[in-house]
Design goal:
It is a single chain. This protein has about 100 residues and is of the alpha+beta class. The chain is about 20% helix and about 30% strand. Strands 1, 2, 3, 4, 5 and 6 form a six-stranded antiparallel sheet that branches. It starts with a strand and ends in an 8-residue tail after the last strand.
Amino acid sequence: VNLSKKAGEPLGFDFEKTDKGLKLKLPSSLDKSSAAGRWNEKHSGRIDELKEEEVVVAFKKASVQEKDGDKLLEEVQRLKEDSAEGDVVLMLDREPYTTD
């Protein structure tokens, strides 16, 4: 899932740490103007639609894959800032996204 966030736009999600990875926390009513809301609007009903409690096992930033959950949390906190911009690719813990 490749999310692109623009300055002034909400990210639209948060995470909860678990032993399996980071669990995606989506609001019950996803803001369609957020990065996650725009993604889900375009991918509704598809395998890559973001869902509540989805587990994220890795992410990519600037072509580097990272499995450290703390680093992902740092990047999410950065992107949550109103003035922040950037792209983040989330690898979900389900087929066809896992490398297992």
